[in-house]
Amino acid sequence: MSVNGTLMNYYFHCKRQCYLHGNRLNLEDNSEQVKIGKVIHEEKAADGKNTELAIDNIRLDKLTKEYLTEIKKSDADVEAARWQLLYYLKVLKTKGVIRKGRLEFVEKNKTDKKIVYVELTEDNERQLEAYIKEIEELIHQEKVPECLNKSKCKKCAYYEYCYI
Ligand code: SF4
After folding, report:
1. By alpha-carbon position, which residue is closest to atom 3 of ligand 1?
2. Which atom of ligand 1 is nearest to the CA of 146?
3. What is the number of the ligand 1 atom nearest to the C-alpha of 14?
């Protein structure tokens, strides 16, 4: 599997999760392609234009003229969400689509939402390249990384696989 935004997120969340997903042990809903189609359709409808965007490997929540917005259910791992969004911004940039990033953390039973803005800079583009290489190395290694044994494991889709 080639590196994508989900793997970038998992790399920060848990190396084992990144490895398992990267080796196609997929325990989650993987509807990236469906979402891409939907977002592109919405953007075209909003613009009234017929711009074709070929976006591979990328999952988008909302694309406006200024921002690519990702909506997250929890702010438990802001760093993972930040690098995932930066990854998407970088892929969009290679397609000629330059946007800033906006992360919305919308938690259940809370009325206010937390918003974090991100921007692609030369520095974080270089850092992304380095992370992409590290992820490729990780998912090609023979040994599965050890379990984290952390409280976040209880909310992870791989919990049963790792502990039961
Ligand atoms: S359950 Fe824990 S160790 Fe296993 S993949 Fe998830 S976060 Fe990683």
Report:
1. 147
2. 3
3. 8
Burial class (CB in 10 A: 0-12, 13-18, 19+), 97: middle
Contact 124, 86 (CB under 8 A): yes
Residue type, 10: Y
Q: Is the CB of 148 under 6 A from ligand 1?
A: yes
Each residue of 9-43: pLDDT tens digit?
999 999 999 999 999 876 655 445 445 545 544 55
**pTM for the structure as a whole:** 0.81
Which residue shows structure tokens 């690519």?
Answer: 68
Tens of pLDDT, residues 105-141: 887 666 778 999 999 999 999 999 999 999 999 999 9
**CA–CA separation, 39 vs 80, rounded Å?**
22
Helices marked H in 95-164 — which ranges? 122-140, 159-163
Half-sphere exposure of 69 (CA within 13 A, CB side): 13
Ligand 1 centroid to Cα of residue 144, in Å, is 11
Whether ligand 1 lies within 6 angstroms of the CB of 159 is answered as yes
> If you measure from the C-alpha of residue 22 to the centroid of ligand 1, how many angstroms do you get, rounded to a whole number?
14
Ligand 1 center from residue 83 Cα (angstroms): 19
Residue 77: CB partners within 8 Å, gap ≥ 6?
9, 12, 13, 152
